[in-house]
Amino acid sequence: MADSFKSQNKSLVDNNKTLSEFIPDTMKAFGSVGAVAYKDGAMSRKHKELIAMAIGIAIRCDGCIAWHVQEARKAGATREEVAEVIGLAIQMGGGPSMVYGGRAFAGYDEFNDMD
């Protein structure tokens, strides 16, 4: 597990740039799916990012958590909303999700320090 979600997100961005050089069509297609999936519709981007964060917790993906915690925060998710969604992820994923949920909550606070 990474110590800093901020540094983890920087690594994700850097790695994605490298992948884009070698597999540009794949990365462009993945980006297009994300652009459509996270667009406001029947659900807001904020709610979609919170769902993605919960999935990241349940599947134990540090990179997913780091990215979607930051994006949920940017989309206006409150600390209370993040906590409630972490509760759902814990219910769905049990003890391991509790560990990763704690990390997600710490990540939300870390990104709040950016203001």
Q: Helical region count?
A: 5
How many E-type strands? Answer: 0
Shape: globular
Helices and strands: which structural class? Answer: mainly alpha
CATH architecture term of one domain: Up-down Bundle
Rg from Cα = 14 Å
Describe the sheet with the most strands.
none
Instruction: Note the run of SSEs as H and E.
Output: HHHHH
Strand content: under 5%
CATH class of one domain: Mainly Alpha
Mean of all residue-level pLDDT scores: 92
The CATH homologous superfamily of one domain is named: AhpD-like
Helix content, binned percent: over 70%
Report the CATH topology name of one domain.
AhpD-like
The CA-CA distance between the termini, in Å, is 25 Å
Regions with little confidence, pLDDT below 50 for 5+ residues:
none
Pfam family, one: CMD
InterPro entries: AhpD-like, AhpD_core, CMD-like
Organism: Rhodobium orientis
Protein name: Carboxymuconolactone decarboxylase-like domain-containing protein
Could you explain the architecture of this structure?
The protein has helices at residues 5-22, 24-37, 45-59, 62-74, 79-112. The chain contains five helices and no strands. The protein is 82% helix and 0% strand. Helix 3 packs antiparallel against helix 4 (62-74). With 115 residues, the protein is an all-alpha fold. The protein has a domain at 43-115: AhpD-like (Up-down Bundle). It starts with a helix and ends with a helix. This is Carboxymuconolactone decarboxylase-like domain-containing protein. Residues 24-100 form the Carboxymuconolactone decarboxylase-like domain. It comes from Rhodobium orientis. InterPro entries: AhpD-like, AhpD_core, CMD-like. GO terms for molecular function: peroxiredoxin activity.
